[in-house]
Design brief:
It contains eleven helices and no strands. It is mainly alpha-helical and 264 residues long. It folds into two domains: 193 residues, Growth Hormone, Chain: A (Up-down Bundle), CATH 1.20.1250; 55 residues, no CATH class.
Length: 264
Amino acid sequence: MVAVVAGNALEFYDFVTYAFFSIQIGHAFFPLQSAYGSLMLSLATFGAGFVTRPIGAFVIGSYADRIGRKPAMMLCFILMGFAIVGMAVIPKYATIGLAAPILAVIARMTQGFSLGGEIGANTAYLAEAATPEKRGFVVSWQGISQLIAITSGGLVGITLTTLLPTAAVDAYGWRIAFLIGAITVPFGLWLRSSLPKRYIRPRKLEHQRTWRRSPVGPGASLLACLHTRAGLHRLRHDRYLHFYVHRHLRSGDDAFVRTGRFHR
């Protein structure tokens, strides 16, 4: 379970790191005269990852059913590794021109594709590997690992903005956050290489009996969908709050990032 959960956390760290440094990424790849326009293009690139997530879920989910969960999760991690290394080393717009934002969008879409496939394969693997009496507890770590990744990304952001001056964060500090994720890729691949290629096809009769005996049935699926939707809104709210503080409370934005409090 540790190998699966740790790998999932590393994938989510790579995915959400972009959100914490969207402003700096906008300056690097979308250097418009309008700061608002630069930020909007950066956010649009952030959203591109969500466009490819369902595509990755469908494609890699089908691959996991045919080949196995472990190969699918390994593929997701490799794709995420290429994407995050790309984000860390892509030159600025001032250096390579239009190729910079194009490469950034491709890297971001690759991140979304791999994460979309990761969630399904990861959850299925945990459910299949767990014993029936602990299946709910084991699968819950898929969601817990996401929150661990978001917290870790936030701590990296706080550390970088505390230790580096603002100009340094804009110039190269945000790339360090991506490189930290890139460094963990070999570790994650090593963890997952030790996993057995597990695929348990549940018997149809047992599946039907379990469904009829469940006191919640379809209601559980509805609650899961609502929870996922609420998490997406929370992510949007957190990102918007960060951008609002940075744009409208310029005198205290650094203090906000470091301490989590407003300073006017």
